[in-house]
Amino acid sequence: MWGIALKKRNNRWGAFSLAGLLLVGGYPPKQEKPLERTFAVGSTQRYRVELLVRTELAGQRPVRIGVKGYAEPFTRFVEARISWLATEHTRSIDEDGTADVEETLGGFSAIVSNEATGDDPEWKKLAVALEDALREWAPARTLRYRASRAGELRGLAREGGPPLDEAAPQLLTPWLVRALRPAAALPARPIHFGERWQEPRAVTLPGWDNVQGAESGEWLEAPEFAEPAARLQIVQQITATVTSGSERLVAGAGGAHPLSVAGRFHGESLATVSLMDGRLLRATRSATREITWTLAPAEGFEQPLRFQGRLSVQVRIEECSENCF
């Protein structure tokens, strides 16, 4: 459902994707039933949502001082931040508890961005392009989708998130569309505070070989909320060797052909949900897609040069009362 084929080894989970790093809460430790979302027709929740998008390139330049050679590190990045108000309204509920949800986005803030580091004109162009992409996506809109009692979202349109300049295979793009929703995917396990688990994930991605995936999680208490609540921290990772596609060439190194290219996805999510009805109270979600290029040593150098390109997003969601600004 996320656009990435991820399956648990024993096939219990079926189709699963690292794009679904939406975290959940659950029942108190002595309750052995999984938490489910309880919808009510006509109910409305309001949230303030904040998004940060960052593109970064870090690497090494060969520098000579006399007869000695050095690898000089450098970093270039651009980032932009925007926030808005999301209003979730339950239109109807099926017999199995699945809800028809209408989410309205509005009250967008001004875009805040850094000036591209350094004086590279290409990075300044990238900063402008990032701002333009967020600005074009920002006008008020209404999304319609289906939400199950377990928090599974269906029928989400691509317009639910801003466009990302991401090469194939896309990992962050489908992840972000769901991460921006004021909802939590609830796991089929009860809350046992302090109990940590880790499970492998089988991952298939075009152009990436030797793919390894894993997920770990832990239930945490949430004593700071007025109503009973719980948090769940989830970490999900993918590592692979990039064997084809545009990322085989090295960004920032004149299109050089590397000795090796490694791909990595890392996501962390922390969501707090009400134990009364399973609704989301607060969430922080982040994910990074990283490509590492290893080049042959430059003439006169013993160590290989490395470049890392990163595309990352950070999401903050907070339920708010009448004053959400």
Spans where pLDDT lies below 50 across 5 or more residues: 1-30
Q: Report the count of strand segments.
A: 13
Largest sheet: 13 strands, antiparallel
Number of helices: 2
For the terminal residues, how far apart are their CA atoms?
Answer: 33 Å
- Rg, alpha carbons: 22 Å
What is the mean predicted local confidence, pLDDT? 84
CATH-derived architecture: Roll
Strand content: over 45%
Helix fraction by DSSP (H/I, runs of at least 4): under 10%
Determine the structural class based on helices, strands and strand pairing. mainly beta
CATH domain fold name: Lipovitellin-phosvitin complex, beta-sheet shell regions
Tell me, what is the CATH class?
Answer: Mainly Beta
From N to C, what is the helix and strand string?
EEEEEHEEHEEEEEE
Domain tally: 1
Shape: globular
Name its key features.
single chain; 325 residues; mainly beta; Lipovitellin-phosvitin complex, beta-sheet shell regions; 13-stranded antiparallel beta sheet; disordered N terminus
Topology:
Blueprint: E1 5-8, E2 44-65, E3 68-93, E4 99-106, E5 112-113, H1 121-137, E6 141-147, E7 153-154, H2 172-179, E8 196-204, E9 208-221, E10 229-242, E11 260-274, E12 280-295, E13 305-320
Antiparallel strand pairs: 1-8, 2-3, 2-13, 3-4, 3-5, 4-6, 6-7, 8-9, 9-10, 10-11, 11-12, 12-13
Question: How would you describe the overall organization of this protein?
Answer:
A hairpin with a 2-residue loop joins β2 and β3. Residues 1-30 have low confidence and may be disordered. Strands 1, 2, 3, 4, 5, 6, 7, 8, 9, 10, 11, 12 and 13 form a 13-stranded antiparallel β-sheet that branches. 8% of the residues lie in helices and 48% in strands. It has 325 residues and is mostly beta strands. It has a single domain (5-320), classed as Lipovitellin-phosvitin complex, beta-sheet shell regions. The radius of gyration is 22 Å and the shape is globular. It is built from two helices and 13 strands, in the order βββββαββαββββββ.
